[in-house]
Amino acid sequence: GQTGRDGNDTLFRAGLDSKMKPAQPAYMAERDSMMTALAVFQQVESVSACSDLGAAGLGAAVCESARLSGLGARVDLSNVLVKDPTITPEERLACETQGRYLLQIPPCSVDRVMRVVSSQKGIASIIGEITNDDEEVFEFKGKRVAIIPNHPSEKVIASL
Predict the structure, then answer these.
(1) Which positions ≥6 away from 159 have C-beta within 8 Å?
(2) How many CA atoms lie within 13 A of 139 on its CB side?
(3) Residue 33 contacts by C-beta under 8 Å, 6 or more apart in sequence?
(4) What's the pTM?
């Protein structure tokens, strides 16, 4: 699926967007993406993980997937499919646009997965890789947007 400017709850709550824009229902896009994901599961045995990109978007899905595997990830947000090319890196990272999935697959399965997606008239892009690091790194056009550690410090910094 493609990221839009809707579903910015995470960005709004973090103070990175001044106006709340709820996720828009996208029933047909959700159905089409789900059917494409199911076709991949049926035809490709090596899918390691799959997450929908609703709550907290791509950032949460990548962090949950990598952290639960005890690994890290490096994601190039400029490869995220978007409805509007002016969408900010932060929107690409955290928007909750419906009808999108994140698949974790080994490199040897990329061509097969892309063929299945294409056969379903779906769209997909390779956005990153799993690493042995203990953090998830999100970049956009070569600049780091966010680094999220798997084991954040228990110390809290407060601004009064």
Answers:
(1) none
(2) 13
(3) 1, 99, 100, 101, 122
(4) 0.84
